[in-house]
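Thread: iron/sulfur cluster complex, take 2
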Amino acid sequence: MALLRNIFKGGAAVPHRKNTAQKETLKMNVPEKVIIPMLQHIGAPCEPLVKKGDTVKVGQIIGNSDKFVSAPVHSSVSGTVTNIVPVLFPGGMQVTSVEITTDGMQEVHESVKPISYSSNKELLEAIRQSGLVGLGGAGFPTHVKLSPPPDKPVDTLIINAAECEPYITSDYREIIENSGNIIGGINILKELLKVKNVYIGIEDNKPEAIKVMTHLAEKIDDIKVIKLRSRYPQGAEKMLIYSITGRKVPPGKLPLDVGVIVMNVNSVSFVSEYIKTGMPLIKKRVTVDGSAVKNPSNVEILIGTPLKDVFDFCGGFNSEVHKVLMGGPMMGIAQHSLNLPVMKYTNALLAFGKEETETGEESPCIRCGRCVYACPMNLMPLYINLHALKENIDELEKYKPNDCIECGSCSYVCPAKRHLVQSIRLAKAQLRKAAAK
Ligand code: SF4
Ligand code: SF4
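Output below.
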C-alpha cells in the first residue's frame, strides 16, 4: 500500500454515518412493475425501441440513440410494456419512460451471452452495448470516457473507491463482496488503455477495504492501493487526482487533460462481470438509509424499481418522511415522488424525518470566510451568493461560478445557513442565459 502524498485544500469534516457498512447486500424481489427512463446518463436521450403491448425479456435493449455520447437502456425484467409516458424528474425535466408490468419469470433475452472481442474497438463497442455509465453517481457513458482522443495520451487509471459522502456504503460492499471482479475489471482496462499506473484510492475510514484490495494488488505489478485522508469531497475527481498524483486539473478542463482516467470501483467491477456473462446493466447495489428508514440496508435492486417498493423492502418508514434523497446528503437530489424509479447511477436512497431536515433559518452573511476556506475549488461562495441574488452578471463572471463542482462544503460550514449551493446553481443559469442573448 502506498501512502498519500498530497492533500487537497479545503473541504469539510462531515460525519461518516456508514451505518450499513457491515451489512451484506440483500437481493430485492422482482417488483410488479418497473419504469425505465430513456435518459439515465449525461448525453443524448435514447429513443424507445419497443411499443405498448410488446413482450420483453431480461437484458433486452429497449432504448438506444445513434449519438456517441449516450448509452442504451435495457429491460431489467421479463414482462409486457404497458405504457410509454413522459415522467417528471427532479429539476423539471420530462423524460420518456417505458413502463413494464413484470411476469415474474425473469426470462433472459437470447442476446445475453458471454462477450468475446479481438480488438479494443470491439471491446469499446461491447461496453457501449452494456449500457454502462459512471456508477458512482455521475452517469457519464463509460465507452466515451474510455475513448481518449489521440492528442490526449493517458498514463494513469485511478479507481475511485473513496466513497466520501456520509451514509453511502455501496462501493465499500463491492470491495468486500466482489474484490475479484474489481481486479478482473482493472486488468481489462489496463490492457485497453495501456496505462503505466493504476491506483485504487480508498479513504482511511475503510480499513477492511484497504486490507482486502492491498492483499490482491500486491500480487499484480503496477497496481497500488492509496490510503486517502477521510475528508469530504475526497472522492470528487479533481481532488482525487491531486491527492494521488499531485496533478492539478485546471478549471474547465477534464482529467484527460492531465493524462488521467478516473473510474468508479463498481463500474470497473461491472466490466469484468459483463465480459463473463454478457448481462448488461440492469441492476444496482443501493444503500438505503436515513433516520426515517426502519431497516437501513444495502440492496441489489433491478433498475426501474419504484422507490416506494425499495423503502417497503427495507421495512418502510419509522416516522413521517420530510425528505427523500437520491445520492448522499451533500450532493444528493431531493425526490418529489416515491413513484420515481431507481436509475443506473443511483447509489443511495436516503429518507429523513423532520429533525434532520430542519436546517435553521437563513441569516445575513457575517463575512466569516469559512465558505472560502472550505471551497476545494478556490472560489468565494459568499460573493457568488451576493451577486446571484442581485443578478449582477458582470460581477458574477469575476467569481467563476462555473468552476463550482457543487460539492456543498460551503453550505455545510456556513454559520449563517446561507443557501450557497442553490445560489451558485442560480448563478450558473444566469450566466447561461446571458451568454445565449
Ligand atoms: S463553491 Fe462549489 S466547489 Fe466551492 S465549496 Fe461551494 S459547492 Fe463546493
Ligand atoms: S460562511 Fe456563510 S457567513 Fe461566513 S462568509 Fe461564507 S456565506 Fe458568509
